[in-house]
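Q: What does the assembled structure look like for these inputs?
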Amino acid sequence: MIAALLLKLRARDEVSAAEEEALRVAVATQRDLPADRTFIREGEELDTSTLLVEGLVCRYKDLRDGSRQITALHVAGDFVDLHSFTLKRLDHNIMTLTPCRVALFPHARLKEITETLPHLTRMLWFSTNLDAAIQREWELSLGRRTALAKTAHLFCELRVRLGLIGLAQEADYALPLTQAELGECLGLTAVHVNRTLRELRERGLMEFRGHEVRILDLAGLERVAEFKDNYLYLENRPR
Amino acid sequence: MARFYLHVINGAGRAADEEGAELPDAQAAEKRAVEGIRSILADEAKAGRLNLDGRIEIADEHGAIVRIVPFEDALEIRRAAGRRGGT
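A:
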């Protein structure tokens, strides 16, 4: 249940057996959710944080005209709202993109961790800092990268993030997202995403078909994207 | 609701829409097409080139083309009379 979380954390630092056990017992319950379910709504009072165990989840905000910006994608092992532990309500919504399994961590149990396990607390803090780092990189994409570069960048990022939890091979991974959802991540229309994917394919960089990503030229894709993995903080070191 | 497919055809070739979208009617599909064209052309303009010789073919779920939206129909293009483009 917390296997992916442990893979993600242990890629960056050691997690002791006692810390692992503390995480395990902090889970109150698990839930299975269908795809396209907004399960945390903007403004609602929260007393648990949700860990994604399986599936894909997004954070999003909508404008009045219905246009949607996905501000974050979460993969297994990500807390989708560890920040609700201190914020207690969110300024955005959280929705499943695929059928998902989640584990719920009551804030009271997270509080216990913060009061008894300083290193594990820092690791949880690290993971919200990592969320923020990813958000900054997305901001750069949305504000400055071309359609081609930001699309390439997202696929480069997900290859690394999914690879850490064993869900990506060197050059292939499954990504059950529609082109419309990709567009909502990238600030592009679905039509434009389709056109951009075609260009990536024609340049021999990558293909995305039937929810399967196949990277044909990783170095080329990373060059087009100006992808540097430093913002993913992959170094394993004491934190 | 019905499924519509928006195929993009322009200088770069044909990008077939294999996914489609559930939309109320062909008019809604046309609106999507116009937004898509504007988004593609905006990106081109930023890169300093603009190719208006494209179109989006809107197909229904049987593959029949129900509407065609030329790129230039997605924009109102104004130029002073007699002005010539290029350098």
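DSSP finds nine helices and ten strands in chain A.
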